[in-house]
Amino acid sequence: MTNIVISGFKGRMGQSIFKMAQKFDDIKVVGAVEREDHPEIGSEVYKGLTLQDDVAPLLNENTVLIEFSNPAATVKHVEEAMKAKAKVIIGTTGLTSEQEDSIKKASEVIPILESHNYGLGMNTFWEILRNATKALGNDYEVEIVEYHGGDKPDVPSGTGLIIGNIIAEAKGVKFEDVVRYGRDITKTNVRKENEICYHSVRGGSYRADYTIVFLGDGERLEFTLREESVDIIARGAVLSAKFMETCKPGYYEMSDVLEFLRQAR
């Protein structure tokens, strides 16, 4: 049995992870954590499960903390996990470089898995794009078209930026040297060498689409991934908890989870 504690329990991701965990016979949610001023602190949110504002009493060497909260809480909870020798899965975004450094330092003591996207499809998509970029080389130009709902505040999205960085790395260039964000009206448009151009579409309520276009002489290749629900992220996070049970102290990424799942099939 894999015992998990969910931080950010009442948030959209926390609720999705909780519901997904119920579908697995070998996963048990043993803790639910929220900010100290949350109105439901102290109340029973499920049979025998009380919402708490202190993660420390819930952690031990047999628990996996799944962290989808805020940067400050995440860093504090990682410190508590170190004391308890618990394992940690981090999906929190917006961490500073200093906070990231503290997390990687903590991974010398406990197992920590961190990813900006826990979808198995998305992580496989990244592998496909990396291999395609290397195979096609500089003979193909790259455009990235990403679609999100109208309430998505960041342009490009965090996942979109990861895609661009993966392609730039596979090309052997620095992302910041080749990135371009859209195109304005002009009669003198010129692509720079290895340019990666973003087109960010925002509107409606759909979760996310990503289409990466490789444009060559006489042909065009398009790779598209569509995310319809946060449930795919939740499923990846729950499966990652199973992986973490096998881990020694260290810093892990979703590529390690994918390899674990391949071997388990």
Protein architecture, described:
The chain has helices at 12-21, 71-84, 97-106, 120-136, 158-171, 175-178, 231-244, 254-264; strands at residues 2-7, 27-33, 44-46, 49-52, 63-67, 87-90, 111-114, 141-148, 179-181, 196-202, 208-216, 219-227, 250-252. Helix 2 runs parallel beside helix 3 and helix 4 packs parallel to helix 5. The protein is elongated, with a radius of gyration of 20 Å. With 265 residues, the chain is α/β, with parallel strands linked by helices. The chain has an eight-stranded mixed β-sheet with strand order 3-4-2-1-5-6-7-13, with helices on both faces. A five-stranded mixed β-sheet has the order 9-10-8-11-12. The protein is 35% helix and 27% strand.
List keywords for this structure.
about 260 residues; alpha/beta; Rossmann fold; Dihydrodipicolinate Reductase, domain 2; eight-stranded mixed sheet; 8 helices
Q: CATH superfamily membership of the largest domain, which one?
A: NAD(P)-binding Rossmann-like Domain
Radius of gyration: 20 Å
Major beta sheet summary: 8 strands, mixed
Q: Please count the helical segments.
A: 8
Low-confidence stretches: none
- Taking strands numbered 1, 2, ... along the chain, how are they ordered across the largest sheet? 3-4-2-1-5-6-7-13
Order of helices and strands: EHEEEEHEHEHEHHEEEEHEH
Specify the CATH architecture of the largest domain.
3-Layer(aba) Sandwich
Q: What spatial form do the alpha-carbon principal axes imply?
A: elongated
Residue share in helix: 25-40%
Number of strands: 13
SS strand fraction: 25-35%
According to CATH, the fold-level topology of the largest domain is Rossmann fold
Overall residue-averaged pLDDT value: 95
Return the domain count.
Answer: 2
- The rounded distance between the terminal residues' Cα atoms is 19 Å
Structural class: alpha/beta
Q: CATH top level of the largest domain?
A: Alpha Beta
